[in-house]
Amino acid sequence: MKKQKKIVLAYSGGLDTSIILKWLQENYDAEVIAYTADVGQEMDKKKIIKNAKKLGVKKIIIQDLKNIFVKDYVYPMIRGHALYEGVYLLGTSIARPLIAKDQIRVAKKYNAYAVSHGSTGKGNDQVRFELGYHYFGPKIKIIAPWRIWKLKSRTDLINYAKKHGIPIPKDKKGAPPFSVDDNLFHTSTEGKVLENPKNSAPEFIFQRTTSPEKAPNKPSFVTINYKNGDPIGLNGKKLSPAKVLDKLNQLAGRNGIGRVDLVENRFIGIKSRGVYETPGGTLLLVAHRAIESVTLDKETMHKKDEVMPRYAELVYNGYWYSKERFKIQKIVDLKKNKVNGSVKLKLYKGNITIQSRQTSSNAYSMKKVSFEENKTFNKSNVERFINFHKKKLR
């Protein structure tokens, strides 16, 4: 008896991927394996399993990747201080390479001939997923329904869902939902009223941050402890990477920190407007720059700033596994072993203030910067230094 082929679908349990699951069953003579990567998104595991089983799925895999996500993807990116177009902390971009890698692992384990994803034909995620698929499974077929099916609009999708008894969710106002992506690092919201950049983002779309106006009237404080360039705990208590980010998310979110409203330039050549919430990630970025300011030399810090825009662009475009990104990461991490100590932050109504930086590093010399007279800095050399640079003006 001939074995049935298998397809591994990146399945969220939501409307789009449930429609895709049914569509794959109708159009391919293959068993569909539902694969969900748990990268800290808000999800109902029982609902995912229930929805998949209702559609006839026999194999449902939910993989916990939260610690790997933070340790091996978020932390390296934070060490690079990556900001796309000056403000975007790349929350969606950084999750896709990991999901793609693990999805291919599952495909190989079950000898699947193809993988599939729910990314739209106008978005960046299709590129991010497929570059990851190609890197780890170049011989595995990729099925991208949004680029090949005949469903042309949101209305078509909803009608298809009704026809096949697939539940249609509603947003807080009772209408079909915004396009939302979330993980432990961030939440993004796109579509509907946000598509017109003249419209303000309605307050009800924000899921993990309090508005600064409604944040507590008293400040909060947190100390982030560092070893070899990465956070190892908070307030002197050691915590796993996922737990560090989770606690920072809660603290920053309560204090109205981490909101960004961005019209960005997509890799595929169109502009889009998105609202992002990255509360804990915003604290990590600010604190990391602060701890590096007292542990790294000027040349290293400035070199990192120089390569950052390209690093961020590579992550945004889906090139996490590229030779260029690996090369830049080596530059970023060249002296990370020197980045040790702690940074204390004050959080108040959307603002972050650095309270203190502590380290045993000697990169910062109190004797040299002191306004008191001392012998550690030879001021007689300054005139020669200025004269040397005068020549460069000509």
Overall description:
The chain has a five-stranded parallel sheet with strand order 3-2-1-4-5, with helices on both faces. A five-stranded antiparallel sheet has the order 10-9-8-13-14. It is an alpha/beta fold and 394 residues long. It is built from 13 helices and 14 strands. The mean pLDDT is 93. The chain is elongated. The protein has helices at residues 15-27, 45-54, 66-79, 91-109, 125-136, 145-148, 154-163, 241-254, 279-293, 298-317, 323-332, 366-369, 380-390; strands at residues 5-10, 30-38, 60-64, 114-116, 141-143, 179-182, 187-190, 220-227, 230-234, 237-238, 259-265, 271-277, 341-348, 351-358. Helix 4 runs parallel beside helix 5.
CATH level 1 class label of the largest domain:
Alpha Beta
Mean pLDDT: 93
Sketch the topology as an H/E string, one letter per element.
EHEHEHHEHEHHEEEEEHEEHHHEEHH
For the record, what is the CATH homologous superfamily label of the largest domain?
Answer: Argininosuccinate synthetase, chain A, domain 2
> What structural class should be given to the helix and strand makeup?
alpha/beta
First and last CA, distance: 83 Å
What is the total number of structural domains? Answer: 2
* E-strand count: 14
The main sheet orders its strands as 3-2-1-4-5
CATH architecture of the largest domain: Alpha-Beta Complex
Shape: elongated
Question: What is the fold named in CATH at topology level of the largest domain?
Answer: Argininosuccinate synthetase, chain A, domain 2
Rg, please? 24 Å
Q: Number of DSSP helices?
A: 13
Major sheet details: 5 strands, parallel
Percent of residues in helices = 25-40%
